[in-house]
Amino acid sequence: MIDKVVHMMPEALMNECSLIKHEERRVVSVVHTFSPSGEDLGYRITRGRIRSCAQLTYMDAEDIIKKGCLSVCLSDFGDKAKEICEAIVSVNRIAQILRAKRLAGGTRAINLKKIRYERGDDGRSVMVQVQKESLKSNQLIEELALLTNSVAAWEIQKAFPNLALLRRQQPPRADVLSKLVRLCDQEKLQLSSYAQQSLPALLEEVLVSRPDLHPVLQAQCIKKTRIAEYVCTGNEKDTHHFSLNILYYTHMTSPIRRYADIWVHRLLLAAQEENPKIPAGLTPEIMNDIAGDCNVANAAAKTCSAASQSLYMGLHLMDEYGGSSRQMGTVVAVYAASRAVEIVAPQLGVTMRVFCREQAGLARISHHVTNERQLLELGWGYEGREDVDQLGIGSQIEVDVGLNGDNVRLIKITITPPHLRNLISAPSSDHSNEAEPHFEDHAQTEYGLHA
Fold first, then answer.
1. What is the pLDDT of residues 270-282, one digit of tens each?
2. Cα separation, 362 vs 419, whole angstroms
3. Over 90: is that where the pLDDT of 364 sits?
4. First to last CA, the chain
5. SS3 411
6. Residue 202: Cβ within 10 Å count
């Protein structure tokens, strides 16, 4: 939630397990050895103790990566400054090699901009645009976490093929790439041969050549992409993670905030014994129940987070716009049977289904298909004349995003009647930097940076 953090464990226990500067902590480590060229020479899994000498923010680490030992954030570390700098710079070099190999190996990395809402220093809701490209320091942690999690997954499924707790993401529900290519064809948009075979490349090309169409394609991707889930290998043989393009993947790097990680730690430690034994009382049925409980809790957390974002979006609309904001929206889906369209208002980060029959001032509505494109025709009556809108996927339309009454928890989108419209749609050649809403089960999480 925006204004509150609910920890999985009691705070006292969490603090005992968290990495804190100059405090010794017990750890389970996956220790890798790399050659100077980034070749993975092997790993070992071991219990150990760690005492961090520095606690850095992502921006601190980013500054060190960019400036090396000249970074001002190293000024407080005395003789340790050079050692910290060299460690971060060298590990970042390895992380970038790992990242390049991973992306070349088929990882479906779709990095999108998004909008989130936060509480400002004055207590008011603040809209924040999250940039598409992550920092090198974020990528460093992400690559090490992905590598560690994949090693843990391999080890536990090898030792306990019917008990491993893995993270799976199934492919999209339909052939989304071919549908998006066909949509681009309908829009007379020429794609390279590479973009026609790669979803990330397609989105990148569309962002450059037709930024007005990009929210449409993104929305289609989100609608068709399946959410990652925990599974027990004793009940599910298909364990492939679609986005990461890896057969075995799990979570083990955040045991103080994810219950699944605790079980993965237990299995991983048991797997390191000379004769691995299943933890007492654990069966595939029990592990399957644990996976299901983790999925339910994860879904509940996402729902709570989305509700918190919606609340602060409502507060933002109230504080900044008096409860309603006129926006240019883009139609991302057409529902002929219910005479509805799904509209995204990218500048505010909101996507919502709009039922055309409920729009004030609408005199008639009809549905037809033109060149394989579903269209809703809206006829507006005003002072004896009729104005007509034809809405299909990709159509831009002026909308009002506002509160439903005075309830800041309920937000609605309404289509602005033609005689009240005053916004001008951005031309298709405008390479805009509008942020877009994005909800994804991302492999990257928030980790503290310690040296």
1. 999 989 999 999 9
2. 12
3. yes
4. 29
5. strand
6. 23
| Burial of residue 441, with CB atoms counted within 10 A of its CB: 0-12 exposed, 13-18 middle, 19 or more buried | middle
- Give the lowest-confidence range in 12-16, 98-102, 118-122: 118-122
Please name every residue paired with 166 in a beta bridge, in sequence order, or none if there are none: 231
Over 50: is that where the pLDDT of 242 sits?
yes
CB 111 within 8 A of CB 442: no
Whether the per-residue pLDDT at 322 is higher than 50: the answer is: yes
pLDDT at residue 441, rounded to an integer = 37
CB atoms < 10 A from the CB of 256, how many?
16
**Exposure string (b/e) for 321-345, b if CB count within 10 Å is 16 or more?**
beeebbbbbbbbbbbeeebbbbbbb
Residue type, 175: D
Is residue 91 within 8 Å of 140, Cβ to Cβ? yes
Closest CA to 251 of 338, 117, 109, 148: 148
Tell me how crowded residue 197 is: count the other CB atoms within 10 A of its CB.
12
- Compute the distance between CA of residue 105 and CA of residue 146 in angstroms, rounded to an integer: 14
Distance CA 390, CA 365 (A): 10
Locus of tokens 């045991």: 255
Closest C-alpha to 128, from 114, 143, 149, 109: 114
pLDDT band at 137; cut points 50, 70, 90 = very high
Write out pLDDT tens, residues 191-217. 898 888 877 788 888 888 888 788 788
Q: Is 378 exposed, middle or buried (0-12, 13-18, 19+ CB in 10 A)?
A: buried
- 37 φ, ψ (degrees, to nearest 5): -85, 0
Residue range 37-46, pLDDT digits in tens? 889 999 999 9
CA separation (Å) from 361 to 65, 173, 207, 418? Answer: 58, 38, 35, 9
Amino acid identity, position 229? E
Phi and psi, residue 199, nearest 5°: -65, -45
Q: Which residue has the tokens 């999209």?
A: 172
Q: Which of 446, 449, 443 is nearest to 62 (CA)?
A: 449
Bridge partner list, 25? 50
